[in-house]
Amino acid sequence: MRPGMWKSGMAASAILLASGLVAACGDASSETTAPPPSWRPTPVSGAVEPADTIKNAPADAWRAVAPENLLLMDLADGSRVAIELAPDFAPVHVANIRALARAGWWDGAAIYRVQDNYVVQWGVNESKAPLPKGVVKLPPAEYDRALAGLPLRPLGYPDSYAPLAGHLDGWPVAWSPETGRAWLTHCYAMVGAGRDLSPDTGTGGELYAVIGHAPRQLDRNIATVGRVIDGIDTLTPRPRGTGALGFYENRAQDIAIRQVRLAADLPPATRPAYEVMRTDSPSFAAYVTGRANRGGDFFDVPAGGIDICNAPVPTRKKV
Amino acid sequence: MRPGMWKSGMAASAILLASGLVAACGDASSETTAPPPSWRPTPVSGAVEPADTIKNAPADAWRAVAPENLLLMDLADGSRVAIELAPDFAPVHVANIRALARAGWWDGAAIYRVQDNYVVQWGVNESKAPLPKGVVKLPPAEYDRALAGLPLRPLGYPDSYAPLAGHLDGWPVAWSPETGRAWLTHCYAMVGAGRDLSPDTGTGGELYAVIGHAPRQLDRNIATVGRVIDGIDTLTPRPRGTGALGFYENRAQDIAIRQVRLAADLPPATRPAYEVMRTDSPSFAAYVTGRANRGGDFFDVPAGGIDICNAPVPTRKKV
Hints:
2 copies of one chain form a homodimer.
Chain A: H1 14-25, H2 50-56, E1 62-64, E2 70-75, E3 80-85, H3 91-102, E4 110-115, E5 119-123, E6 145-146, E7 153-154, E8 164-168, E9 171-176, E10 181-184, E11 190-193, E12 206-210, E13 223-230, H4 232-235, E14 255-262, E15 273-277, H5 282-292, E16 315-318
Antiparallel strand pairs in A: 1-15, 2-3, 2-14, 3-13, 4-5, 4-14, 5-12, 6-10, 7-8, 8-9, 9-10, 11-12, 11-13, 15-16
Helix pairs in contact in A: 2-5
């Protein structure tokens, strides 16, 4: 993946764009007399503390993560990262990732890129090895999907990137009734498939996880294939790469991966089990209200709003 | 600071809140037939690559960071963090921070908290040492300020937390024409003054920097005093604390601070100099348009929108 790469020499239109936006935004000096905004936060006092909502959520407020969708990356240093795959959003890429895991594609590979406030990236470029049997070399651009019929739960607050944002079956989603499309949002800990320039979509052989403020500009521009549900904090503190885009400049800096497996391929006795809160449950609704209206002993002013990436869907490891 | 601390035992209202939000959000199953949203992104093709806008910005598109507002934290490991203070937003807290720096308050202190996707925190609690002369022990709650007359630049896109968001003199700000107040937003790299429970506002003796997705719930709940303009990436990779809220569990884990000084107090020859892009300049308008409409060789679909924390105000070190 090369997010952030750009063709240079487009500066000629800078003034035009600049004046255009200034006009669109109104004269700053007259801003305080601008017409009232179309949205006002409606703070709620006494919302339930999110940790209490999670702690008290009944058993039916949770769904299990299927072993076929649970990707386990074990680093050489002994740490583990657990990723839930999203086959309903990127079926061909997820099928590739399963096939790659079963072929040991990432065993002995490395994390080779850490860009501050952006992504951690790992894997093996497709060009560097023959693809295992069953891996589609040029998957379709699974960047969004049809909206019709999806039981989406609107977050209930404005989104800065899309007409609507909310959740579907435990996943953060944005959508447009106008275009009839829905897509996963690039929130903290979301996982995508690295790619080069279009029409290449990547096979899934190189993956990245978001480690900073949500880079929503990637939405609909790359295949989002899952989410780190455990162990993101073993990825976020890794040394930032000093090369362009945070790439490690020499292989001695690489962070070795011991193996990547699907939970479904581990002996049942050794399989970890995770659950994700059902985003269509009353517990999740209370959780969102609590996140959007923090209170308790510390907070004095509930925001009355929240963005899709600041209400991460609760997950838990079954022990 | 104890963000995230909550009084427990409020779960009784969970169902009421849950059903309330579900009602407010409408029946998810009928969502795709819901009325059209009040906002639609308006993508722009061929926007100028943000790096080019920064590179080509004229001299008058930049303002200098005043040495009185430039706080330099030197860690024992030789790394440096540069913070611009925001006296227009938190004058008493910033005056305290200047007095504390001049008294060597943080010399030999430590970073003692790193909470993943949240904050890095350092300093000395007011209770652990006599306050230097001139430091106000109980500053006013400088959490927001009067909106009237401020030459705010609206970002031009919806905000999930406030009626309006944009910039003022290089700072990310949200505001409400209804309440007549404006406040700094807790974006990545923003710096705040740790506090205990209200009415305590903290003196500035303990500071934190945001290292994850913008925790906007802190807006208007704590004194935001500045922004890391250089060296945030020396804070973000620090080991996450294993104690509650990311506190290091023993002092051996602390990260030592050698000294913290104001640039104004350094010999002129050794003072670093920084500049911040003027947020009322055409260059900044072009930068925001570029960030909201990524293109070039990699991006196929410009978002047509962006949130206040995903368009960080450009800064540069003068050499």
